[in-house]
Amino acid sequence: MVRAMFDFLALAIMRQFVICGTLDLTLANGSGHQLQGRSPGPHASITIHDRATFLRLVTKPDLAFGEAYMDGRISTGNGGIDALMELLMLNSRHWSRHWAGRLTLRFGNCLAWLRHLNPRWRSRRNVAHHYDLTDELFETFLDPRRQYSCAYFHRPDDSLETAQETKLARLAAKLNLQPGQSVLDIGCGWGGLAMAMTECRENLSVTGITLSERQLAHARKTAAEHSLEDRLDFALRDYRDQGGAFDRIVSVGMLEHVGPADVPAYFRTVRRLLAPGGVAVIHSIAVHDRAAPVNRWMTRYIFPGGHLPSLPQLVRAAEAGGLKILDMEIMRGHYAETLLHWRMRFLRNRDRITALYDERFVRMWEFYLAGCEYFFRCQHGMVVQIQLSDDHQAVPESRDYITELETEFRDRLCRNDHSGKKRASAT
Fold first, then answer.
1. Which of 103, 184, 388, 412 could form an S-S bond across to 323 if both were Cys, CB 3.0 to 4.6 Å?
2. Are residues 81 and 151 in the same domain?
3. What's the domain range around 23?
4. Does residue 124 sit in the same domain as residue 104?
5. 254 and 399 fall within a common domain
6. pLDDT confidence of residue 425
7. Which residues of the chain have pLDDT under 50?
């Protein structure tokens, strides 16, 4: 009797969750229920294989859906994970305003500030959790330059390689790179951007810093293979410990790992390291409305310590740090398309990745890539590129220079293959 009452209440709460679209729900006892929202939307179907999972989905949805999917305790029907993710993302926006949603989220996020504290020791551990996975894993779905950040699609049919080359050329153009300058790449990853910048301009001196030992090893190996050790200097170093002054600073996909408490310090550090009249370009995921704690499943299994800042938060922190905003670009659907390319490549290599890890890992990453894609398609996620300086005359007044330099730099990058090697001349 008590069990039946709890099941009834859980089903009633889940009906409240589905405000738009339709969810066909099959419970562990075999009973089927169609949860119909008040407004049109995606049509998804799931089967819940045990009763405990059903109750956790109701009480801890931000954690339980991902755990249940990666453990095989729920399975999708018609529409697969795409329909499920679209339905979850669309309805979670409303759920956060519903009394039951506010209650569960408030309880789950009551200690969120602890998850987002990133002192030096924790930052290194958080980075290792994700970025020190095997090189073979990232090779299965990234482009040859290993750009693990939003690409830029000039046309919908651009390949991932083309779109990533465009992103690199666009960043170099916004930096207004000139021969002989010194450049700092904060969060340099596997060194692809640093390498690309040396292809765009002659005699650059680029310092790249990361907290990932595997990324550092790959970046140094690539620099050595191209005899660029005198121009590319890679180090295992926290950005807070970096010294010197640089003509240009670039940071791609790094600010999301700083944590809300350290965003002001991050921009003060950028200002400290930027030479007078220098230019910095910060490329980061952001949200349109006020920043909120990152989904608990994401911070537990994928990006510990991750935090998505809001645009007002970034603007305030940059200006408080003594920097002037010269240019800002909002990239809306580009990351969704990037993630779709990654997910399709990842799934084409499913057997290979399962052999590296296991089926649970594959399902976890499938949920991660699909969830992030639909976050950008259906919610308030975006990518922002902010151009900064201490001098508001540091770049030309007209933005035409960005287009002109992007074309020039893209042509230079396209003369090489995607790993930085010269392409063979056509015969």
1. 388
2. no
3. 2-108
4. no
5. yes
6. 33
7. 99, 113, 418-427
